[in-house]
Amino acid sequence: MVGGCVRDLLLGREPKxxxxxxxxxxxxxxxVFRNCRLIGRRFRLAHxxxxxxxxxxxxxxxxxxxxxxxVHENGRLLRDNVFGSIEEDVWRRDFTxxxxxxxxRDFSVVDYVGGMEDHQAGILKLIGDxxxxxxxxxxxxxxxxxxAAKLGFKIHPESExxxxxxxxxxxxxxxxxxxxxxxxxxxxGYAVQTFEMLRHYDLFSALFPATDLSLQLETDGFPRLxxxxxxxxxxxxxxxxxxxxPYFLMAAFLWEPVQSAAKEKLKQGKHGAIAYQEAAREAIRxxxxxxxxxxxxxxxxxxxxxxxxxFSHRSGVxxxxxxxxxxxxxxxxFLLLRAETGGADPELADWWTKFQVANQAEQGKMLxxxxxxxxxxxxRPKKSPKSSKQSIATKD
Length: 396
Ligand code: ATP
Ligand code: MG
Prior knowledge:
Elements: H1 4-10, E1 19-22, H2 26-32, E2 36-39, E3 45-50, E4 53-59, H3 86-89, E5 100-103, E6 108-111, H4 115-121, E7 123-124, H5 130-136, H6 139-151, E8 154-155, H7 157-161, H8 163-166, H9 175-186, H10 191-200, H11 204-207, H12 209-216, H13 224-239, H14 246-267, H15 272-287, H16 295-308, H17 316-323, H18 328-340, H19 346-355, H20 360-379
Parallel strand pairs: 1-4, 7-8
Antiparallel strand pairs: 2-3, 3-4, 5-6
Helix pairs in contact: 6-9, 6-10, 12-14, 14-15, 14-16, 15-16, 16-18, 18-19
Bound molecules: adenosine-5'-triphosphate (ATP) and magnesium ion.
């Protein structure tokens, strides 16, 4: 066994998955296990099935066959498909603590790169020259942050020094792979620390440029507080064993860019719902260039955003319609987040909290009262224009 499982077991943690390596070729592995399927065209891997579990079994990778390796002009490895020995395999791995091999024959840990020592000291150290290794695969910078946040390890000074300067190399990584990494980074139970570290190392802007810009333009804690709360809630849910949906987090990340774009459109005289629809479409079109998420994720995000405007309409039919909307729950959670961080009226959020669990008679009373308040407000002359942060479902 190699990689994360050995690293995590040594920490007394339950590994997420088990990676198995062997000197047997994939074909030889297939002969040993009945329930085995070979996958991959360039680099063949064996998937061994144990009930519903799949154990990935890889043959040691070689590194010396340059004939089969194309190195991109900026140093990125495009292909590696050569089998090798364990001594060669070790140089393919990223951090020393990820290059520990647990030998099941004699229960020993095989360590070629001082990984045990680094593990004990809680240090993430790249194997080899950091610049070369980040160039080969810039995603290793994100992995450094992910493991540092998750394990509470420190990134070795030499491995961290180059990160801010090399962060722009992430532009060359296919956006689908970056989205996968984003999910691993934020749906981990350590999203808060991860976010702080990504910003510290200038990596966040490579993943979410529009969000990063809105963070730089921060006023009165917006959108930082809102984002921090969203990440905190995500961690909490994961640690309680609850599920989290990627679209909710993505919607939170892009909320401020969407709002400011929509505000511009409102200024140009566009209708509220249309302004938000258009802003949503543009924000998503821009974001998928960096982290390509599936279409359904974009659709769900848009629904969460556009439903925000409907919370302030508390007339009978509309309120019930919103309550019955398939995306009500997520949109309501989103409203709560906004209300907790000053972006929406807490009274409104509270009303919806009560409304959804009230019985019919109580709901009737609540609707009547809300309608009365609405009428009174309309009669009263407007004191001041709405603040820019409260253009949707806010203190009206
Ligand atoms: P976890 O599964 O807990 O997220 P892990 O370390 O097992 O962490 P995986 O992505 O499962 O991470 O990869 C398994 C192993 O493969 C790693 O421990 C590392 O040795 C190697 N590895 C994975 N990705 C890379 C990479 N981009 N560059 C170098 N080695 C890598
Ligand atoms: Mg793993």
